[in-house]
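stage 2 :: seqdesign
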């Protein structure tokens, strides 16, 4: 701060000498007058770490948002027996060691850090279940989040993307030993998110948390309510990452055929396991499921998922991937059977007959396997 002031005074004096104007009168800014009000509500030891940084004084909305999240994350929760200040001091000290932080923060870095502190806060604060009145915590007791976030900051394992009109931050967490996998998952996520959103829907959150979890029984798990996913280290492949992220982008339909079928279809479409791509949907239907990595599910479940994904493949052959994606995106949350009207709506007139006969055929084929949306609306 002192250094900046001296430089600008020199500049002004030189200008004054050259132009022959009267020398400027320096008006020192009283301590704290030009700073964010957020600093006033932070613990002094945290505010001290931020107060004199140029980025924290620019008064922009991005800065205020970031400072607000830091202020929220450091608030002690005495009723929960949580004292946050030392943890936040540590996170900000680690930030202070990073070259990308020391050279100032651009808009994306501020947005990313805002998401980082927001998710940190919500994981540790939990939320009240309105039905039971109980405070609930995602992944309760499973992780040492202060340590995981410290390592994510140290290795800059967060990334800001813009898959639609708004920005989205991925934050990848992994214990020591899984950090490389977390980085890999982050890379796959940022590579594929634009296409996932194009095909499957929008992510209605500004953050997605990816946690590498070695003790998962299955390859991955998506938590739509909190926009988080756990992925087993040996399953960190483009296919699995795309699958789990598709769950977070598609409407919550609560029908296995729709949710899993769509996730498999999008993953196979964007990041196929079997290369080269099988040419016909029939072949894909028979061969492309990598269920080997996951716990054995019952046959009915497998048939439902396989059938649903194959249904999207077959539909893709008739109307193209974009139209399939538009149909998926048009399905309202909660009602899987609405998929059929959406499909019909996105089918051009000259393809209607083929699509209707595909639906009829598949409905007969999968009726036993809970793939139920078999009422085809009149044209
Ligand atoms: Zn799934």
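stage 2 :: out
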């Amino acid at each position: 701060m002192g250094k900046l002031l001296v430089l600008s005074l020199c500049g002004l004096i030189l200008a004054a000498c050259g132009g022959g104007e009267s020398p400027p009168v320096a008006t020192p800014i009283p301590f704290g007058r030009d700073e964010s009000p957020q600093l006033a509500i932070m613990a002094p030891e945290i505010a001290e770490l931020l107060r004199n940084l140029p980025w924290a004084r620019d008064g922009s909305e991005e800065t205020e948002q970031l400072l607000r999240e830091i202020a929220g994350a450091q608030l002690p929760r005495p009723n929960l027996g949580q004292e946050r200040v030392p943890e936040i001091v540590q996170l900000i000290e680690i930030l202070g060691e990073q070259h990308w932080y020391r050279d100032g923060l651009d808009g994306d870095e501020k947005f990313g850090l805002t998401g980082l502190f927001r998710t940190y806060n919500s994981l540790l604060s939990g939320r009240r279940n309105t039905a039971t009145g109980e405070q609930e915590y995602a992944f309760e007791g499973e992780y040492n989040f202060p340590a995981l976030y410290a390592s994510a900051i140290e290795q800059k394992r967060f990334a800001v993307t813009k898959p639609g009109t708004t920005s989205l931050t991925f934050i990848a967490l992994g214990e020591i030993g899984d950090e490389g996998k977390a980085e890999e998952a982050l890379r796959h996520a940022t590579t594929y998110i634009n296409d996932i959103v194009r095909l499957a829907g929008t992510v209605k959150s500004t953050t997605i948390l990816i946690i590498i979890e070695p003790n998962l029984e299955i390859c991955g798990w998506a938590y739509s309510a909190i926009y988080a996913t756990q992925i087993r280290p040996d399953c960190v492949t483009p296919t699995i990452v795309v699958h789990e992220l598709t769950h977070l982008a598609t409407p919550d339909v609560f029908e296995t055929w729709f949710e899993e079928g769509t996730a498999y279809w999008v993953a196979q479409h964007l990041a196929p396991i079997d290369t080269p791509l099988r040419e016909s949907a029939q072949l894909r239907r028979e061969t492309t499921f990598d269920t080997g990595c996951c716990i054995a599910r019952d046959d009915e479940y497998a048939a439902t998922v396989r059938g649903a994904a194959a249904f999207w493949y077959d539909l893709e052959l008739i109307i193209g991937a974009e139209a399939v994606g538009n149909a998926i995106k048009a399905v309202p949350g909660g009602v899987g059977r609405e998929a059929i009207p959406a499909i019909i709506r996105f089918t051009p007139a000259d393809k209607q007959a083929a699509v209707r006969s595909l639906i009829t055929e598949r409905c007969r084929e999968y009726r036993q396997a809970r793939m139920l949306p078999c009422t085809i609306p009149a044209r």
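stage 3 :: structure notes
- Residues 243, 247, 260, 263 surround zinc ion (CB under 6 Å).
- The domain at 157-249 is CATH 3.30.2010.30 (Zincin-like).
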